[in-house]
Write a structure and sequence with these properties.
Elements lengths: L60 E4 L5 E3 L4 E4 L4 H18 L16 E5 L12 E5 L3 E5 L3 H14 L14 E3 L2 E5 L5 E7 L7 H12 L5 E5 L1 E2 L2 E2 L8 H4 L16 H13 L3 E8 L4 H6 L28 H17 L4 E5 L8 H17 L3 E5 L14 E4 L7 H8 L3 E4 L2 H4 L21 H5 L15 E8 L7 H8 L2 H10 L7 H9 L2 H7 L21 E4 L4 E2 L3 E3 L10 E3 L7 E8 L3 E10 L8 E5 L2 E7 L10 E10 L2 E9 L7 E7 L1
Parallel strand pairs: 3-4, 4-6, 9-10, 9-18, 10-13, 13-14, 14-15, 15-16, 16-17, 17-18
Antiparallel strand pairs: 1-8, 2-7, 5-6, 5-8, 11-12, 19-29, 20-23, 21-22, 23-28, 24-27, 24-29, 25-26, 25-28
Helix pairs in contact: 1-2, 3-5, 7-8
The chain binds ligand TNX.
Length: 679
C-alpha cells in the first residue's frame, strides 16, 4: 500500500527551537519492509566470547565465575519467596517467558529454606544492601540461578537481566531446542535514576490497546519503569470522561490525516494500567493543558471564550488552541477530568502538559496553572508537566516534576523550578525524541530537533546536561514518541529500537560504565533477540548487529576438512555431505576443531550434523575459543550410522578467528560428525 499525505503545514514553535524547514512529507504507510538496509562490513574490535557483560543497560557490577554455566533443564522449577504474592507474580511472569521457547513445564513452587533447588529462585532476602528498592543480585552456578532483591520490582529487574543472559532464542514464540545456558557468575545491579520512561502519543494517531500492550512487553526488557501516555491533543481526545462524554465520542473521532481515531474506555485504560503494573511499569496519563486542546474545544462550545466550537483538526500545526482561562466553567471541566483520571491511575503523577500554550498569554497561563495544580495535589497526585510549567508566574506545587524537552544545555525555566524544589525528567528533544528521524533517509519521523542516530541518543549525560541542574535534581530520563508521522505498530518498533535501549542505559547504568565502543557491541548483541521477537528495528550502521545478516561467512564447515585430534575421516556410511565424516575412534578427549572467521562479534546458531548408530548417548563438550558453550551436550543414538541428525546451539563469536571444538567425553567417543554449519 502506498499513501502519500499532503505536506505538513508550517508549525509554530518557540523561536529558539529550530522550526520545521519547509515541508515534511508524510510517508506514513510507505512500508518499512521495503527499506534497503545496507550494512558495511567492518572489522570490529575483539571481545570475549560468551559473557555476563552483554546486558543492556550495563549492570553496576559483573563478576563472571569462569565456571560451568547453569543450563536450564526440563526438570527445572521456579521458586519465588514463600508467602510473597508479588514475588509469586514475578515467578509467573518469568515462567510465561521461558515456557514459550523451552517448552519446559517450569512448575512454580515456594522457595524452601535449604540450598537453592534446580531452576530459578526469586528471593526477597539476602541481597547485597546496595541494591536498594529497584536493584537485584543475581547468582549463577552450575546448579541454580538465584535472584535476590528487597522488592518485587528488584526481582523483576533481575529477571530482565536473566532473559538477556540466555540465548536469544529464549525470546522465541515457539519451542526451540536449546541448550539454555546461563553464564556463571554474580551481578549486583541497581539504577542510577529512579525514573526511566518513554512516552507514546496516542492523540496524533490513535494506537489500540493491543499495540500499547505489546509496546509495554518490549520496553520492560530494558528496565523502563514509566510509560507516559499523551492522551489528548488538538487532533484527538483518547480517554472516556463520564461527565464530559463528547470528549471521547466526538473529540476522539479523528486523528492526523483524518483517519477514524479512537479512544480508550475506562475499562480499556485500566486494562493497560494493570498490564503495565504486571510488568512493573507505572502509567502516567497526560491531558495536555491549556494549549493542545482543540479536540476538547470542538467537543464543547462552552469551553471556548467566544462560545463557538471550532472544527475538529487533522493537521499537525501546534500552538493555536487554548482553554479559556477566564471562564469558571474551564476549571469545573479540568477538575472533572482530573478527578476521573486520578481515579483510574494508581501511579503518583498526573501530567498536565503545559507546552506550547502559544495562544495563551503569560498572565493567563499563570492564572490557569495556579488554579489547576492544586487540583492535582488535592487528589493525592504530584504534578508533572513540560518544562514551560517552570514559568515564573506558576507557583511551585509540592513534589512537582518538570520534563525538559528543549534543545539547549541551559534553561532558565528549569533552573528556576529546580531552585523552588522541583525535580526534572530529562527528555532533550535533540537526544531523546524517538520521533526524530535517524538519518535523512528515515522513512518516517520528523527532524525539527535534528536527526538522532544511535550514538547521538547515547552520548549525553542526564546528570550534567543542563547547567544549574545537578544530578541530585534529576529524577530520570524519558524518551517521548510523538506520532504525527508514526501510524503503525511497525513504525513504533522501528523508531523505538535501538534508541530506547540507549536512553534506558543512560537512566539505569552508572556513568562510569558509559562507553560508546562497549555499548555498541552490547547493543548489537540485542539484534538477534529483536529479530526473534519480530521487532522491525533500525539496523544502524553505527552498530555491529549480532545477526539479521549473519555475522560470519555463514555456511558449512565439513568435519573431514577440520583439525582432528584423533580418529579418522571416513566415507563408509551413506548420507554425508562433502567427501566424508569423522569417526571419533571411541576415545574420550578426541576432538574435531573448526576455525570460523567472523566479520563481526555476536551470537550465531551452530548446527552439528551427526549420526550415532547405537543406542548409546555420546555426549560432547563444545567450546568456543576455549570457553565452554555446552557441557556434556547429549548426542543420542540415531538408530543407524546412515541416519543423520543435527544438534543446534547458540554461541557468541568474536570478530576474527574463532576456534570451535567438539570433544568426546566418554570412552564411547563422539558420534560420527558430518559437518558444522554456521547460521
Ligand atoms: C513538540 S515536545 C511538541 C509536540 C509535538 C512534537 C513533535 C512538546 C512538549 N511538544 O506537540 O508533537 O514537538 O516532535
Amino acid at each position: 500500500m502506498s499513501l502519500v499525505a499532503p505536506p505538513f503545514p508550517a508549525r509554530r514553535r518557540p523561536s529558539r527551537l529550530a522550526c520545521l524547514a519547509g515541508a515534511v512529507l508524510l510517508v506514513a504507510a510507505a512500508g518499512l519492509a521495503v527499506i534497503a538496509v545496507t550494512q558495511p562490513a567492518r572489522a570490529q574490535p575483539a571481545r570475549l566470547a560468551v559473557s555476563m557483560s552483554e546486558v543492556v543497560p550495563a549492570p553496576v557490577s559483573v563478576q563472571p565465575s569462569g565456571g560451568t554455566p547453569y543450563t536450564l533443564s526440563p526438570d527445572a522449577g521456579i521458586f519465588p519467596q514463600a508467602g510473597s504474592t508479588p514475588a509469586a507474580d514475578v515467578g509467573a511472569y518469568l515462567a510465561g517467558v521461558l515456557r514459550r521457547s523451552t517448552g519446559y513445564a517450569l512448575p512454580i513452587a515456594p522457595a524452601g529454606s535449604g540450598a537453592p533447588a534446580r531452576g530459578v529462585s526469586l528471593l526477597l532476602a539476602g541481597a547485597d544492601p546496595a541494591v536498594g528498592a529497584q536493584g537485584y543480585q543475581l547468582d549463577v552456578t552450575a546448579d541454580a540461578v538465584v535472584i535476590r532483591a528487597q522488592t518485587a520490582d528488584g526481582l523483576f529487574n533481575g529477571v530482565q537481566t536473566l532473559r538477556q543472559l540466555l540465548p536469544p532464542e529464549i525470546e522465541s514464540a515457539v519451542v526451540r531446542p536449546g541448550p539454555w545456558a546461563v553464564p556463571g557468575g554474580r551481578i549486583v545491579d541497581y539504577p542510577r535514576f529512579a525514573y526511566r520512561g518513554t512516552m507514546l502519543d496516542v492523540a496524533r494517531h490513535f494506537h489500540p490497546v493491543a499495540t500499547v500492550k505489546q509496546h509495554i512487553d518490549r520496553i520492560a526488557l530494558y528496565k523502563i519503569n514509566y510509560l507516559h501516555l499523551h492522551l489528548s491533543d488538538d487532533q484527538g481526545w483518547r480517554i472516556v470522561v463520564d461527565k464530559w462524554p463528547r470528549l471521547a465520542t466526538y473529540g476522539g473521532s479523528t486523528q492526523v490525516g483524518g483517519g477514524p481515531g479512537g479512544y480508550y474506555t475506562k475499562a480499556q485504560f485500566q486494562e493497560i494500567v494493570a498490564y503495565a503494573a504486571q510488568r512493573h511499569i507505572t502509567i502516567i496519563p497526560e491531558i495536555d493543558l491549556p494549549g493542545h486542546t482543540n479536540a476538547a474545544l470542538a467537543s464543547y462550545a462552552e469551553l471556548n471564550c467566544n462560545g463557538v466550537a471550532p472544527q475538529l483538526y487533522t493537521g499537525t500545526a501546534v500552538g493555536f488552541s487554548s482553554l479559556c482561562s477566564s471562564k469558571e466553567n474551564t476549571y469545573t471541566f479540568v477538575n472533572d477530568v482530573l478527578t476521573e483520571l486520578a481515579a483510574l491511575t494508581p501511579g503518583p503523577y498526573l501530567h498536565i502538559g503545559g507546552d506550547e500554550a502559544d495562544a495563551t498569554s503569560p498572565e493567563q497561563y499563570g492564572t490557569f496553572m495556579n488554579r489547576i495544580q492544586p487540583m492535582v495535589t488535592a487528589k493525592g497526585k504530584s504534578v508533572m508537566g513540560w518544562h514551560q510549567i517552570g514559568a515564573s508566574a506558576v507557583q511551585h506545587s509540592p513534589g512537582r516534576i518538570v520534563q525538559y524537552w528543549g534543545l539547549n544545555t541551559s534553561d532558565a525555566l528549569v533552573s528556576s523550578a529546580v531552585s523552588k524544589g522541583a525535580k526534572v525528567v530529562m527528555s532533550p528533544a535533540n537526544k531523546a525524541y524517538l520521533d526524530m528521524k535517524y538519518t535523512a533517509q528515515s522513512p518516517v519521523g520528523q527532524d525539527w530537533a535534528g536527526r538522532i542516530e544511535v550514538r547521538t541518543a547515547y552520548d549525553w549525560n542526564p546528570g550534567t546536561y543542563l547547567s544549574g541542574v545537578p544530578a541530585s535534581a534529576v529524577l530520570g530520563v524519558e524518551a517521548p514518541m510523538w506520532t504525527e508521522t508514526i501510524v503503525t505498530e511497525d513504525h513504533i518498533e522501528y523508531m523505538t529500537f535501538p534508541r530506547l535501549p540507549a536512553i534506558a542505559e543512560l537512566g539505569w547504568s552508572p556513568w562510569s560504565t558509559h562507553d560508546w565502543d562497549a555499548f555498541r557491541l552490547r547493543l548489537g548483541a540485542q539484534g538477534p533477540r529483536w529479530t526473534i521477537m519480530g521487532i522491525d528495528f533500525y539496523r544502524s550502521p553505527q552498530v555491529p548487529w549480532g545477526s539479521g545478516p549473519p555475522t560470519t561467512p555463514a555456511g558449512r564447515y565439513e568435519a573431514e576438512g577440520a583439525t582432528i585430534s584423533r580418529g579418522v575421516a571416513e566415507s563408509n556410511h551413506a548420507g554425508f555431505s562433502g567427501t566424508g565424516f569423522v569417526n571419533y575412534d571411541n576415545a574420550a578427549g578426541a576432538y574435531v576443531q573448526w576455525t570460523v572467521n567472523a566479520a563481526q562479534a555476536g551470537p550465531v546458531t551452530l548446527r552439528l550434523r551427526y549420526s550415532n548408530g547405537t543406542a548409546v548417548n555420546r555426549p560432547m563438550d563444545i567450546t568456543v575459543n576455549g570457553t565452554p558453550a555446552a557441557t556434556g551436550l547429549a548426542f543420542a543414538g540415531t538408530g543407524a550410522w546412515a541416519t543423520w541428525q543435527t544438534k543446534t546451539l547458540t554461541v557468541n563469536l568474536r570478530a576474527g578467528a574463532n576456534t570451535i571444538r567438539a570433544t568426546a567425553t566418554t570412552a564411547d567417543g563422539g558420534p560420527n560428525v558430518d559437518y558444522l554449519e554456521v547460521q
